[in-house]
Amino acid sequence: MESNYLKVEFPSLPENVSLSRVIVASFAAQLEFTLNELEEIRVATSEAVSNCVIHGYRETDGAVRLELEIKDDELTIVVIDYGCGIKDLGLAQTPAYSTDPERMGLGLVFMQSFMNEMKLESETGKGTRVVMKKRPERGTEYGCPKQ
Amino acid sequence: MNLEFMRKGSVMVVKIDGELDLSTSPAFRKKIETELDEVETVKSLILNLEKTTFIDSSGLGAILGRYKRLSQRGGKLCAVNVPPYVYKIFELSGLLKIMSIYPTLEDAFADF
């Protein structure tokens, strides 16, 4: 398979965080990711979509858009919300920063740790866009190096 | 997500069956708080992750919140049957500094 894509939009409900993991894991399974890599992709997706619900819309109504692409053996996950945006990107990306004592502020840390690339774009009043990329470590089909 | 509770002395074991994320963490939080309210002699908590299929930072935050309450009672927090990727997020989050990990429930109880 050379390329594939999937675009889906859903309400910013906590219940849909689980749905987003299923969608992304199913799509990512088209590449030769290990089970461990798929778990990491599920966590990164869960963190990104949870951020839309918690911070983007502050648990009010809104839409979360998920755009997935497979191209040249690389998975790209784009998570978009049209919520309040992030005032201070630097502060938001500080590990363990959170205004809620029940939250650990590690969502972005996990996204960066589990994906090969993670880029955060945001504009206050307009929303936030997270782009994450990951390649299977094996990089082969059925254990044989690609020609 | 379902929770199964078992108590042995001052130790409560919680078996988490299912996913612990943004959607299910509030129920996890509430059920454990209720159990801790009802049995004041419980000081320590063992999380049994044998049937836990997913945890993210929302779940970790709920776990950390319970640790704070237990530490006020002089108790500790442990986990058993931890899947490899969950171990990694425990490690990344720093939770391993405050939480002990054991292979099995028997190993955990041997340490109390």
Please provide a written account of the structure.
The complex is a heterodimer of chains A (147) and B (112). In chain A, helix 2 runs antiparallel to helix 4. Mean pLDDT of chain A is 87; it is low at 140-147. In chain A, a hairpin with a 3-residue loop joins strand 4 and strand 5. In chain A, 33% of the residues lie in helices and 28% in strands. Chain A has a five-stranded antiparallel β-sheet with strand order 1-2-3-5-4, with helices on one face. Chain A has helices at residues 15-28, 35-56, 89-92, 107-114; strands at residues 3-11, 63-71, 74-81, 117-123, 127-134. With 112 residues, chain B is an alpha/beta fold. Chain B is 41% helix and 30% strand. Chain B is built from four helices and six strands. In chain B, helix 1 (25-38) packs parallel to helix 2 (57-72). The longest helix of chain B is centred in the middle third of the chain and has 16 residues, at 57-72. The A-B interface holds A 14-15, 17-18, 21, 36, 39-40, 42-43, 46-47, 50, 53-54, 100-107, 109-110, 113 and B 19, 21-23, 29, 54, 56-58, 60-62, 64-65, 84-85, 89, 92-93.
The helix count of chain B comes to 4
**How are strands sequenced across the largest beta sheet of chain A?**
1-2-3-5-4
The helix content of chain A is 25-40%
Structural class of chain A: alpha+beta
Parts with pLDDT < 50 across at least 5 consecutive residues of chain A: 140-147
Rg calc of chain B: 13 Å
H/E element string of chain A?
A: EHHEEHHEE
**Multimerization status:** heterodimer
Number of strands of chain A: 5
Structural class of chain B: alpha/beta
Classify the beta-strand content of chain B into a percent band: 25-35%
What share of residues of chain B is helical? 40-55%
DSSP strand count of chain B: 6
List the helices and strands of chain B in order: EEHEEHEHEH
As a percent range, the share of strand residues of chain A is 25-35%
Low-confidence stretches of chain B: none
Report the biggest beta sheet of chain A as strand number plus sense, adding barrel if it closes: 5 strands, antiparallel
